[in-house]
Amino acid sequence: MPLPFSLVCDLLEESYALATAHKSNNQALTAWCVQHRSRINAPDTNLAALLSTLLPEKRTDRVYCIQANSLERIVGRGLMLGSSRLRELALYKQPGLGLDLADCVERILTATPNPTLPEKLRVTVEEIDEALHSVAAKVKWSSPSIRVPEATVAGPPARSVLEAVYRRLTAREAKWFTRLVLKDFQPLVFDAYQVCRSCDPVLPSILKIREDFTIAIGVMQRLKREMRSSPPGTSHIGRECLSYIKPQLSVKVGRQQWFKARSVKHCLNMCTGLMSVEAKVDGEYCQIHVDASKGRRGIRIFSKSGKDSTEDRVRLIGIITDSLGIGRAGSSIKTECILEGELVVYSELEKKILPFHHIRKHVARRGRFINTEQDSPPRPHEHLMIVYYDILLLDGRSLLGVKHSERFRLLEKVVRCDRGQAELVQRQIINTNHPMAASALRNAFAKVITDRGEGLVLKADQPYFNFSDDRRPFTNHCIKLKKGYIGRFGEVGDFAVVGAGFNAAKARSYNIGSLKWTHFYVGCIDNREEVKRWNATPAFTVVNVVELGEAMLKTFILHADPKPVPVEENTETKLKPAAGAQTTPMTVAFTNPPVFDLRCFNFDKAGCTNWWSLRFPSVAKIHFDRDFSDVLSFDELQKMAEDATAAPELEDSRDNLAWIAKLEQADPRGLAVDAATQLTATTMPTPSPRRASHNSSGSLPLIRHVTESSLERSAESLGISASPSHKHVASQPPPTTNLAKNPLFPDRKRRRATASPILFSPSKKRRRSFVGENPRSTVQSRESEPESPTRRPLGEVNGNSAQQARISTSHRPTHSHASENQSTFAHAVDCVGKERDTNRHKSATSKSMESSSYFRPLHDGVIAIPGSEDGDGTDGDATIPSSPLACTRRRDREPTDEKTHSNGNPEGSGTSCRYAGRECQLANRLVLLPLYFSNLEGVEPLLRAHGLLPNIARDAEAWAKKNASDVSLLPDGQTGPNKILFVDTVEKELETKALLCEMERIRKGVLEETREWISVYDWRVLNHLTIYEDGKTTKKYYDGFCDPWRRWYCGLV
């Protein structure tokens, strides 16, 4: 038996009452479904019609082109109302009455009801669904799957079916039918998942694969029939059965769930394991269905809403065909595929993707270009482009259960990239379990911000949908990270509230009686100086329309005094009307405009305008103590928008570092998520890259002196007892036991942390940077601070400095005063540099001309920190080696001629660095490599370029075993050339863990007097070192870090 519409109205009435009381309606929905289960499961019940009635907003394929005004006329004709009743029907337009059109229809039919019909003639859900379908079928904006060929815009003949329905409804049924036609039940909103699950537990999962009510219900019913015919005990449809349901061409696949990250810390809390960090493309979503057997005619494009928009995006079909090689030999698509991408506009002249508002000039809407009157015509060098980022189906194989990394590899094989036509999304892989994950994500995000990108998208290396029962939180979800989501980064400034409008449907969503305003028009002042000097009539340009939350709207009504007057009677202000079509017209003007502090995600040129306005604006706060004469001017807004949207011509590392600092402060309590790692003795610190570690300004290095008692107090303040080793050498590196904090090292029993230099670095509160402040100003202000003339670069300190200092302690006098230490230390550095130059010529076998830096065993501990371009030597960030092994001071070396390098050592010889010659920071170093490096591409050319081939041990583990028993001190108290171990922490993480664990075990057997530290770096540091030493590379960029060594530093062994 068909389902009567009156039963659905019972549910709608009860749920509406709960919604107005701000209570959940899930329990009422479940109880209703249990009560009418026999009707819902009846064979002649159209379950798709029921879902379309409860979830009208999901039927994006149906477009009625009916708003409140046009529906008012339909009701008047259907009920044959006279003039007095028509005026009563239009009462919803008056603010303050709390009525909408549906309420007015109910009042009229309550007073003069329709004739009562027998039970069998009562309107059913199926009849209402059929009537709405017939109206949508004659509207050209509807989806092609339901549209008839002669569809235009539904006129009176097409809408007559609605008039007939109104004559059969009761007052309550007519009220909900009115809201159903308008697709607006506010404040009632059903949870789509709960509605579908109440009908059948497996239906929500099927709808994810095939997002169509009719088709998904058909699949569900087929599975039930198959289960009934199965052996006993298998009548229940298990989640494992869903893996056999494949996506279907021409039926949109549901989208993954999306989360918004409010900070880097919040983002990492939602991540686990490997994440694909992709640049968010500011375009229109496309889900592309390709039937290779039909060529161009076999391509269907669905929008984010689920509507088939192939007709609108017909200019993209040729680009898709070429990029996939459809109809050509060698195409990777044999039969069919489904891909996801983003439609954008590309400029061949500027060689970049253009802002979002350019799309409307190139994409028609059912053959019409909408809101383009003020836009410049499309230029010959502009065209559409597709950016692919996922694949869901390939040649009959469903990829919904395949991990993201594998899906992307398939996507790379399928797509033929063509710059400016079809490309793959830019991305990088970040292991969120790695201690450097926060720093890597922060650097990537800062890079996107400085490049004026929209943001980042993080995707776990998981299946697109996970239908297993062991699902964990935040798996199979995507995370959006935008600047506007974080703290105050999205705040723009103050705007004047110049007027307001009223929308009866929106007013229902507020629990506020006699509400008169629902939409507020904000504008910029055009004559600020005239108003302040001569009390001129203020003139405003209306730029946006905003809405308020219920709490903020109550505050505005209670405390604001806007002095409203009808727009046509306003003489106190001059208003330049808002551009574009506004669904809610301005009804009142405020002669005493209040002030809103607005925020937005970006700037945009709205339809029918040629100037910038706020994109997705929202009200951050209401200022009752500010005057409208101090709001932003129109010119200031345009300048702000130009600066925010125009990408810089040259990359500015200072802007990048300043944004990294701001992102650190944006984490909860202003403490970076990785600060806990920085404040402990660990071999994997994540330092702030706000300070450059190389002294490019030419100033002398700075040395901090901290007394012995200061060292102990610093350690005690962090809950760490200072060991006696602190009193001997302040620069002693962390012990190997602290490698347990690094995920590259296996878990082991934690020991008391000792001797990390960060524990003793004096800290200073960081200057807070506000949203409106120029990112460069923070850096430039620090550049003006004086630097100490006696600062020593951290590049001259390595893990073996402590060894040498400890070995020769008895031969060096100790001074008790800091001033004597400072002068003696500076002199000692020069002497040591000269000694090394002499020893280099005397002993060729030692090969220790650039070995560890010399440090005195001071009672006043000397802490060497990295240099800084900005001279801020008081920042308390973590300090790690800026180079693995210290070079002797360059002033003690003789200058080297580049011609000598090139002539004496050809580039291909591999015995001398082709970039820096003997000045290379890796010169005469012993390089240890794991065995798995024989299978890695790209490493050997880098080693050859830096002249490291003669000094390579290809098996680090075998070298460690051999040298564990064959170690002897050289005459100068050293143990040989400095060592550096290159590993691969990205592709060979497990192998690297095993290698480091084994090497640490072997090294424990070496006597402490002869044991030296081995610096561990990822081999990718060689790429950054090449940039650093190559004089031809003018833009020195190290993934946001201030020197080439910090990004890929792993620790010490």
UniProtKB/TrEMBL annotation:
Name the SUPFAM superfamilies for this protein.
DNA ligase/mRNA capping enzyme, catalytic domain
Its domain of life reads: Eukaryota
Q: Where is the ATP-dependent DNA ligase family profile domain?
A: 386-526
What's in the keyword line of the UniProt record? ATP-binding, Ligase, Nucleotide-binding, Nucleus
Gene Ontology annotations of biological process type: DNA recombination; double-strand break repair via nonhomologous end joining; nucleotide-excision repair, DNA gap filling
Q: Name one Pfam family in it.
A: DNA_ligase_A_M
**InterPro entries given for it?**
DNA_ligase_ATP-dep_cent (IPR012310), DNA_ligase_ATP-dep_N (IPR012308), DNA_ligase_N_sf (IPR036599), LIG4 (IPR029710), NA-bd_OB-fold (IPR012340)
Keyword check for Cytoplasm, yes or no: no
| A GO term from the CC aspect | DNA ligase IV complex
- Disordered: annotated span: 681-912
Q: Where is the composition biased (Polar residues)?
A: 798-811, 902-912
Indicate, by first and last residue, each region the UniProt record lists as having compositional bias (Basic and acidic residues).
Answer: 705-715, 782-794, 889-901
Q: Name one GO molecular function term.
A: DNA binding
Q: Family per UniProt? A: Belongs to the ATP-dependent DNA ligase family.
Entry's PANTHER family? Answer: ATP DEPENDENT DNA LIGASE DOMAIN PROTEIN (AFU_ORTHOLOGUE AFUA_5G02430), DNA LIGASE 4
Write down what this protein is called.
ATP-dependent DNA ligase family profile domain-containing protein
